[in-house]
Amino acid sequence: MRIALVMDDMPVRSNGTSSTALRYADALREQGHEVICVAFGADGPDSFDVPEHHIPVVTPVAEGLDFHFAQPDEAVFDEAFADVDVIHIFLPFALGQAARDWGRAHGVPVTAAFHLQPENVTYNANLGAAPLVCDAIYRLFRDWLYGDIRHIHCPSQMIANQLRKHGYRSQLHVISDGVPKAFCPGEGEGFNDGLVHIVTVGRLSHEKDQATIIRAIDRCSHRDQIRLHICGKGPLKHRLEHEGSRLPHPPIFEYRSIDDLIALERACPLYIHASIADIEAMSVLEALACGCVPIIAEAEMSAPSQFALCRESLFEAGDDERLAELIDWWLDHPEKIAEWSPRYAAEGMGDHVEKCAERFAAMLEEAIADDLSAYGEEVRS
């Protein structure tokens, strides 16, 4: 197949959706498909750059989250989409809407993915969970893009359930975003400080709730022996640094390359994920694949609790007291860490991106047949 991937801000790897787009592009090419990418800042083979889309008030907030909207460009579309078999859209904004319209006008099948959770919008707007606002955003996204798309990729069953709840009638394909094969057990980073190193990965924002992790460590009986690594960027860095300053060993805030992150996670016995809202949270699967034992928050709008294999890996979101008890329990039972680490590694490696890309390609083939029949055309061989 010749596949066009449309994503507002593809080069930014601190954004999970951008990372997924880049990983899928690489995996699909390795499987023999031709992949072109249309995005702001697109670079590399078969990539088509479009301008940034400046939106008053919204753009400064988005750039603070390391994200840029893209401006549709018909001339770029005419060149990029020539002879493609399918156009796949990652986000429901102006670029994706225009790409959908181009596909409809030229008889090219169009699919989409649901990667932006409405709760991500409300938490970053300091509105909290705001269920009524989230309901309105689901409707808005449906009206903007998804209501006119027959096949939608959902990274988790949780978000598929939410789409059904909010009246989405498309065919939903639940496919993990996939873990790169580089994430696997092995020799980790060497620490010679006598401390227990614990890691969490995610954007420094309200819905990721790293503050609960800091408060939990402050409650731990092992607090004098713990060093927390908070890997990510975001608007709450200074606030979290202030909260972490009271710990005996203040957290290390860092943004690591993939290789350095793998080395860190291989060296950390525990990975903590406190997020209140997450469509899938690939960072959890990546840590598991490296052999970390997770402690994951349970929340209605957060999917990664599905990866927990035992009750000692779960706590109610926001409950720093229970999280502290679980951290202490695992550190008091190193034999349990040794027992569960390989089990979690197998769980994390079970959804390699190559396998997920094969399922994704099968979805595209189904969508091509479905869309072309709607256009009254024969499926291309």
UniProtKB/TrEMBL annotation:
A Pfam family that the UniProt record links to this protein: Glycos_transf_1
Domain Glycosyl transferase family: 191-341
Entry superkingdom: Bacteria
Domain called Glycosyltransferase subfamily 4-like N-terminal: residue spans: 15-180
SUPFAM superfamilies membership: UDP-Glycosyltransferase/glycogen phosphorylase (SSF53756)
GO terms assigned for molecular function: glycosyltransferase activity
Keyword vocabulary terms for this entry: Glycosyltransferase, Transferase
GO biological process, alphabetically ordered: carbohydrate derivative biosynthetic process
Classification via PANTHER family: SULFOQUINOVOSYL TRANSFERASE SQD2 (PTHR45947)
Official protein name in the record: Glycosyltransferase
